[in-house]
Amino acid sequence: MLLSDFDYDLPEELIAQTPVEPRNASRLMVLDPVEKKVEHRRFSELQEFLSPGDTLIFNDTRVIPARLIGRKEPTGARVEVLLLRRVEGDVWETLVKPGKKVLRGTMVRFGDELSCEVTGHTDFGGRLVKFHYQGIFEEILDRLGETPLPPYIHEKLENRERYQTVYSRDPGSAAAPTAGLHFTPEQMERLRNSDINLGFLTLHVGLGTFRPVKAERIEDHVMHSEYYSISEDTANLIRETKAAGKRVVAVGTTSIRTLESAAVAKNEIYGKSGETSIFIYPGYEFKIVDAVITNFHLPKSTLIMLISAFAGREFTLAAYREAVREKYRFFSFGDAMFITRPGDK
Fold first, then answer.
1. Strands 197-203 and 55-59
2. DSSP character string of 72-134
3. Of the candidates 51, 47, 8, 52, the residue with the CA atom closest to the CA atom of residue 24
4. Among the listed residues 257, 293, 249, the one whose alpha carbon sits nearest the alpha carbon of residue 26
C-alpha cells in the first residue's frame, strides 16, 4: 500500500490548540463499519454504547517533563534534548535539535545541577546521552524539564496535568496516550458502577508512536521499539471477558498495540512485558481488540493506518472527511471516535 492512500485534507483551524473543559465535554463520533453509519454524540454519552461485562483497557503511562533546553559547551549554542527512553542507568535515547551540530563527545549543560554528554548515535537519527547530576534525577527533571507538547500545538498549556490522563501512574512517556484524556474520574466511577470492567496496562509512548512515515510503500516502514507491560491480572480480566462473550474495548492506539503485541492467539493473552515494534496496517488480523476509542490522527501517520486496519481504509477516510465537514477538533486535544470492529456485532 502507498503512503498517499492514507492522506486527507485538514484545515489548520481544526487542529485543537487547547483542551475542552470538562474533559468529557468533547464530541464523540460513533462509527459502525458494518452498516457504514456515523453518529455524532458527546464523549459523556459513551456509556450508551457499552454493555455490562465489557472491559475497557487503559494505558496508565505518565508523561515525563521530557523536553530540556540547554547550552552546548563551550560555545553556548542553544540545544533542545527530548528524552525518549531510558536505556540503562543515566543513559537515554533522545532526539536532539540541531542534531547535525551535536556530535559524539558534545557536552550540553542545563544549568548548575544537570548536564549530559553525547555518547553515540541511534539508527533513527537520535542521540544516546549520559546525564551527570547530583541528587535525584527525576526531581531535577521535574524542575528543569518541560512537557513535550506536539509541534502542531502552539498555545501554551497553563496546567501540565491537562496533558496527563486522570489515571496516569507509571512515568516514562514522551507523549500522552491522548484517547484517555477525555475520561474524568466521575465518568470512570459511573462505568464501574454499571458493571463495566476497567483494566490497565502500560506502553511508554516514544518515537515508535509518532515517528513520521517516509517510505512510499508503507510496508517498508520500520517502527521504533517501545516498552510495554501487561499484568497477569489484566490478562485474566481480558480472557474472562472473552469467555463471557463480551467486548474488549481498547482506549487508544497504544492500548491496541500493547494488547496485540502480548496476544499469543485469537482471544488468548497472558501477562508479559518487553519491547514492541508492532506495525498494524490494513490486512492485519486482530486477536484481542473488539472496539476502539481513539482521537483523530495525522494524515499519513502509522496511527491512521492502524485505525484503517480496524475499521477499513475507505470507511475511515470517509469518516475523517465527514469530521472535517462537521468541524470536529483534531489531534491530541481534539475530539474522539468510538469504533466497533466489523463482524463483532
1. parallel
2. EETT--EEEEEEEEEEETTEEEEEEETGGG--TT-EEE-SSSEEEEEEEE-TTS-EEEEEEES
3. 47
4. 293
Same domain for 192 and 255: yes
Q: Supply φ then ψ for residue 193, to 5 degrees.
A: -70, -15
CA distances from 292 to 56, 147, 324 (A): 9, 27, 20
Interaxial angle between packed helices 253-262 and 302-311, expressed in degrees from 0 to 180 and rounded to the nearest 10: 70
pLDDT score for 207: 75
One domain for residues 132 and 218: no
CATH code of 98's domain: 2.40.10.240
All cell numbers assigned to 75: 560555545
Residues 170 and 257 in one domain: yes
**Tens-digit pLDDT profile for residues 179-205:** 999 999 999 999 999 999 999 999 999
Q: How many CA atoms does the CB half-sphere of 140 hold within 13 Å?
A: 16
The range of the structural domain enclosing residue 81 comes to: 67-144
Do 307 and 278 sit in the same domain of this protein?
A: yes
**Tell me: the pLDDT tens digits for 26-69?**
999 999 999 999 999 999 999 999 999 999 999 999 999 999 99
Same domain flag for 207 and 109: no
**How much is the pTM?**
0.94
Tens of pLDDT, residue by residue over 211-254, are 789 999 999 999 988 999 999 999 999 999 999 999 999 999 99
250 and 119 part of one domain: no
Share of residues in the chain with pLDDT > 70 (%): 98
